[in-house]
Write a structure and sequence with these properties.
Elements: H1 43-52, H2 54-80, H3 83-94, H4 103-110, H5 114-129
Helix pairs in contact: 1-2
């Protein structure tokens, strides 16, 4: 109903940045589809690490840059494509999740109604059958 999914991540070892500001707490709900361990690192701990070890700061900066690039790519795709193109893009980039997560989450992420996603999937299936 009211879910608004803004991101999916499924690659082992990725950092998940939950706030647009490093000085404010994240207001996000995170859910895993498999058993996993998640480590939450307060920014104060990270900042202490940055001050004491330049390599830690460089690794964090590289991870933050990768995450930012990925999220920009997602936003460009979702804002410039029509529904069917968005779903095909999702399947290409998140194919491992298509059958693993509820379809209403995918619809929310793609910015379409669940009924529209069902029609899109049916249309794609019909096109591939002909």
């Amino acid at each position: 109903g009211q879910d608004h999914n803004i991101r999916f991540d499924y690659e082992y070892g990725n950092l998940l940045f939950g706030a647009s500001s490093l000085s404010e707490p994240a207001n996000l709900f995170m859910e895993a589809i498999t058993d996993m361990e998640m480590l939450e690192l307060p920014i104060t701990v990270a900042l202490d690490g940055f001050r004491s070890n330049f390599d830690i700061m460089m690794a964090f900066e590289a991870a933050l840059s990768r995450d930012h690039r990925k999220q920009v790519e997602v936003q460009i795709a979702l804002s410039t494509m029509i529904g069917e193109e968005r779903y095909r893009w999702f399947c290409k980039n998140y194919g491992a999740l298509v059958d693993e997560i509820p379809q209403n989450y995918i619809a929310s992420f793609l910015g379409v109604q669940p009924q529209s996603l069902s029609r899109i999937k049916r249309t794609i299936k019909e096109k591939s059958a002909s």
